[in-house]
Write a structure and sequence with these properties.
By secondary structure, the protein is α/β, with parallel strands linked by helices. The longest helix has 24 residues. It starts with 10 loop residues before the first helix and ends with a strand. The chain contains twelve helices and 13 strands.
Length: 352
């Protein structure tokens, strides 16, 4: 696939990303700041929290992980912009993953801010983060992985791979449910919500038509692509959802994209086209695996695909993600008659 490189709108952020460091707090433009909040033990290193100045305080787009280091970085970043944590009036959460949602509850406790989530993600909070419900979620993940053909010796490890980070979220119920097309009513901003499912069922982007900005969360990033996977809390065909949502944002009149990771960039349409082409390439690669066999499990297919590193060196958590991403592509092919599932223990996949 031909390489497409976006133009960074912040050379400082790009240099920090490529140099393995954390960027500085930046004034993006009048009334808008970018605050990097560190992520512990994660190659992404930080989430970019955006601070929107309003007439009565500030609103945040995302919050960060629930660690003291992250909270202190957020407070310090607000101070650079001239604000205190008590000035936060709203936390607009793009989705419920810990690096975006984790600190929202702590921010609300300190400031009284309201927390907004899309209903599809709000429905997942209890099962995902409540100690009393999480055992059921792990059991459902284990059953899914077994149907995928994950070796029995590693089933338990993979099913519970994300349990080590669940304490990094303050599982606060949202105060406001944000639907597709909602106008957020932030004084001084014409911010509108755009539902972009795929990476999570309730992922939201936020757009400012007057400023021609897109706060893209994890939906569109400058260099990497978000995980789009089938799992117990996903939609039935998350890749179809994701590709449809990509087409929706591509049609926007946007001059600058403000993602949650990496760095700000231009050329939204070109980046979307590149991401779509990446998925088409992956779908074709999977079809090639199916054509070369009499039937494979999802796990077997995943081990035969091209990844950023050799399969043997991929850690358990990322192997689970790779398997579930492969399943999302298989489900997309199945829905279009290009692959067929033969139910069993495990399911076998053949060419359609």
């Amino acid at each position: 696939m031909a390489k497409f490189v976006v133009t960074p709108s912040s050379e400082e952020q790009r240099a920090a990303w490529t140099g393995g460091t954390i960027p500085e707090v930046e004034r993006v433009r009048p009334g808008l700041w970018s605050v990097p909040v560190p992520i512990p033990i994660n190659p992404l290193r930080y989430v970019l929290v955006y601070v929107l100045e309003c007439d009565d305080g500030v609103a945040l787009v995302d919050a960060g992980w629930n660690t003291d280091e992250a909270y202190d970085a957020l407070v310090a970043g607000l101070a650079v912009a001239g604000y205190a944590i008590t000035d936060v009036k709203a936390v607009l959460v793009t989705h419920i993953h810990p690096d975006h949602y984790g600190l929202a509850g702590r921010v609300r406790e300190a400031s009284g801010a309201w927390i907004g989530l899309h209903p599809a993600d709000a429905e997942l909070v209890h099962e995902r983060y409540d100690e009393a419900a999480i055992e059921s979620l792990v059991a459902r993940e284990r059953a899914l992985l077994a149907r995928c053909g994950v070796p029995p010796a590693t089933l338990d490890e993979l099913a519970g791979a994300s349990m080590m980070i669940r304490h990094l979220v303050s599982a606060a119920k949202p105060d406001r449910l944000i639907e597709d097309g909602d106008r957020l009513g932030l004084p001084g901003w014409d911010l509108r919500a755009l539902w972009t499912p795929g990476h999570s069922p309730g992922h939201l982007c936020f757009t400012s038509p007057s400023r021609k900005l897109l706060f893209s969360g994890d939906h569109v990033l400058a260099r990497i692509t978000p995980i789009v996977a089938v799992h117990p809390q996903s939609g039935p065909n998350p890749l179809a959802d994701y590709l449809g949502a990509l087409a929706a944002v591509r049609a926007l009149d946007v001059e600058e994209v403000l993602p949650a990771h990496e760095y700000r960039f231009l050329e939204l349409a070109g980046r979307v086209d590149h991401v779509m082409a990446h998925h088409e390439e992956r779908l074709a690669e999977i079809e090639g695996v199916l054509a070369a066999s009499d039937g494979v499990s999802c796990w077997e297919a995943a081990t035969r695909l091209t990844w950023s590193r050799p399969w043997e060196s991929i850690p358990a958590f990322m192997r689970r993600a790779a398997n579930n991403e492969t399943l999302a592509h298989l489900v997309w092919l199945e829905a279009r008659g290009r692959a067929r599932r033969e139910p069993g223990e495990p399911d076998r996949w053949v060419s359609g």
